[in-house]
Predict the 3D structure of the following.
Amino acid sequence: MAEARKIPSPQVSVENEAFWNAAREGRFTVPTCTACRKAHWYPRAICPFCASDKIEWRAASGKGTIYTYSVMRRAKEPYAIAYVTLAEGPTMMTNIVDCDFDALRVGQPVNVVFKDTENGPPVPMFKPA
Amino acid sequence: MTIKGKAYIAGAYEHPTRHAPDKTVAQLHAEVALGALKDAGLSRDDVDGYFCAGDAPGPGPATMAEYMNLKLRHVDSTELGGTSYVALAAHAAEAIALGKCDVALITLAGRPRSEGQATGTTPRLRDPNQPEAPWEFPYGMTTANGYAMCAMRHMHQYGTTSEQLAWIKVAASHHAQHNPNAMLPDVITVADVVNSPVIADPLHRLDCCVISDGGGALVIVKPEIAKKLKRPPVKIIGAGETVKHLSGGTFDLTTSGAARTGPIAFAEAGITPADIKYASIYDSFTITVLIQIEDLGFCAKGAGGKFVSDGNLISGTGKLPFNTDGGGLCNNHPANRGGMTKVIEAVRQLRGEAHPKVQVKNCDLVLAQGTGMQLGTRHCSATLIMERE
């Protein structure tokens, strides 16, 4: 268990502030296009698949599987960067936390957990299910 | 419309320095420019097109054009990260084919070693206006762990091993031993690589390239000028460039943009991967090489680990001699950008001017392949195919 790294704050913008407002309430949302019905990541105002601007922030299950990961051994406090494939479809960059780094594996099921940042909203991370 | 046969690389120069605390970045750019012009047998007054990328001081080409006092009628400052110079060689050929310039100069230089940049292991926020920044920066995305995630996925998907990746560094070291300027001139073994400290799982310290100062330059000219020069003519016959990214969260980290640029360049050149006698393959990390040689069709997707094992990249014994100067893995990686030196060593091979111990026999067709920026998120890829006349 190693979880001492200070997490930099995300840059909140007019395009993504709805996500961070939900995050402050502990809700994990995924941007989903009401025109083509696909969820995407990273979140943006224009759908990357069909170019519609009809994007909704939908409550997500918070469930996913590890697509790949890497433990940054060189860092003062090692941390695990990863891509997690969400149950809703897209794959997102994140950290895997609250776990034994040596036991991580590709394909492992994980659940979302919000972690505080230095002085911004909390960011979504994942821990083994 | 094609660039095939429309332009020739007439001059190529690699700065011998690997550590330049006594020189400025602008000075290094000018030194490599003059070196490449001298190699070509041309002078600064002959240059009418200037091409540079993000390493050139100041925004775009203006600062270096003034410093070198160039008189230009065509400029291009395309920023594609470390592969910029592979693409700029093609851009120069395009400009020459259209009559926009006759003598194109491309420069690269930088001093990350003197400036003490912890280049690969510290998260860097480059531009807060980048829309992906809030979704990556908090997670400690660095150069090393981004490439490491590609390696981890490749291992999961295809059974690739750390020992197989290590063979890429071993092959580079076999070449670097003959390069008096190489930063890592000692021949090493697979055990040396896998026993070196882990930087970011599964990449070890010796899976990474070196950090060096230095630079390089190319002079590319129209055929009429190339014919009057004394250097062996190196003809540009095919090129491709692209950006590969995360596609809205639907991506495969085991492939690179080379899967797109390779077929485009081979089609333009009218050849196949089997025709290539020597390949310069961008080598920021061992995994970078593995993924690109698969994507270019030198072996099947997923078969790269087996292909590079047992020294198949070593000149004289292997099936695909690569990076005979020692590459970024052992020789140098000026300005943290390996594209320029990839083209330069390919030119040496075509001219028959590589070190005799690594010179490929009957080397008439070569390829330079670059990957700029981050293989694990967004990267730029460029392929350049050249022929000896």
